[in-house]
Amino acid sequence: MKQALIRGAAALLLLTGLPAAVFAQASITGLVKDTSGAVLPGVTVEATSPAIIEKAKSATTDGTGRYTIPDLRPGTYRVTFTLPGFKTVVRDNLELLGTTVVTANADLAVGTVEETITVSGATPTVDLQSTTRQVSITQEIV
User: Fold this and answer.
1) Sequence-ordered list of residues with C-beta below 8 angstroms from that of 112, at least 6 positions apart, any chain
2) Distance of alpha carbon 16 from alpha carbon 141, whole angstroms
3) Best CATH choice for the domain 24-119 from the list 3.90.1580.10, 2.60.40.10, 3.90.1150.10, 2.160.10.10
4) Domain-by-domain residue ranges, the chain?
5) Beta strands 75-82; 44-48: pairing state
């Protein structure tokens, strides 16, 4: 009787942890510098995507110019880097899969607030911070 109760409690704990495992959360991290190579603290970094309910999540770079935007759902993201007195930099088509950590660095040039630079191109989806192999199943495969 006692072992059945322990097994039931263990099964309940496993089932309550299942939703967290099903909804994998990725993150975007990186370093923001100016064109001379000096780090920029206080840069607003905003990630937007239709994959997240609130449509945008943001972070601010710390004293070493680093930022992290955690708990992002898999999907395609647009990351915008803004700081008054510098040109805005936009990174498009960042693909997040599973629990990957995508690195998106930026170099901000001095300029007016109205200027925007859009960087387009393929961003490697290699996660250098984790050794986990993942596969995403799309609706077409199902």
Assistant:
1) 87
2) 28
3) 2.60.40.10
4) 24-119
5) antiparallel
Considering only CA atoms, which of 59, 133, 69, 122 is closest in space to residue 98? Answer: 133
Residue pLDDT, tens place only, 31-61: 999 989 999 999 999 999 998 888 899 999 9
C-alpha–C-alpha distance, residues 118 and 1, integer Å: 65
Pairing status of strand 106-108 against strand 26-34 = parallel
Kindly report, residue by residue over 25-38, the tens digit of the pLDDT.
Answer: 899 999 999 989 99
Tokens 């070493």 correspond to 64
The two tokens of residue 27 are: 């993150």
Residue 111: name the closest of 56, 20, 37, 34 by CA.
34
